[in-house]
Amino acid sequence: MEQEILDELQAALGHAFDAFKRETNKLRTGRANAGLLDGVRIEYYGNESPISQVATISVVDARLLQVKPWDRNMCGPIEKALLIANLGLTPANRGDVVLVPVPAPTGDRRREMVKMLKHLGEEAKISTRNARRDAMDMVDLVEDMPEDDVARAKKKVQDLVDAAGKRIDAFIIEKEAEILEV
User: Fold this and answer.
1) Could you tell me the sign of the dihedral formed by the alpha carbons of 182, 38, 163, 126, in that order?
2) What is the DSSP string of 131-159?
3) Where are the beta strands (DSSP E) in 5-131?
């Protein structure tokens, strides 16, 4: 039973870290990254669809994204959706592709992104602490478990959560250096 609780906790911690990484991919670091456009949705034949389902997004160089729709008639709606998304990007419609230059952020914008990064990191840590609480409650609910085993299981839970927190902190440091890089 103890191993099942630990496995479930590890899965929850992994999901929290993956969600954190996905959210940080949306931060503009000054380099083109296809993840910048993940939140953009486009009306495609009456349905709201993510941009990745109507076009191929590729990184042309460090400062340019290329959005190539599968249907040439979608260039206009893609351009409009990118403008509405308020990402601070100005797309250029070339007829069969939409080019999206990614300008280098200003110093103030970089500091603002670092604050957002740290906020996202704190949210991820809150998620890991919630997973810890759930795991601790599950350990307490196990009947017929000796006190020593309960204490050992709780220590293992805490060790896993501490390791997840260190992983998040290391990722924040790495991403912060990437954001502040000029």
Assistant:
1) positive
2) HHHHHHHHHHH-TT--HHHHHHHHHHHHH
3) 41-44, 47-50, 55-61, 64-69, 92-93, 98-101
Q: Confirm if 65 and 34 have CB atoms less than 8 A apart.
A: yes
The domain in which residue 59 lies consists of 34-101
pLDDT value at residue 11:
95
Q: What is the pLDDT of residues 39-81, one digit of tens each?
A: 888 988 888 888 888 999 999 888 899 999 998 888 888 998 8
In this prediction the pTM is: 0.71
CATH number of the domain encompassing residue 89: 3.30.1360.40
Residues with Cβ within 8 Å of 47's Cβ and at least 6 positions away in sequence, in order, are none
Do 96 and 110 fall within a single domain? no
What domain count does the chain have?
Answer: 2
- Per-residue pLDDT tens digits for 150-164: 999 999 999 999 999
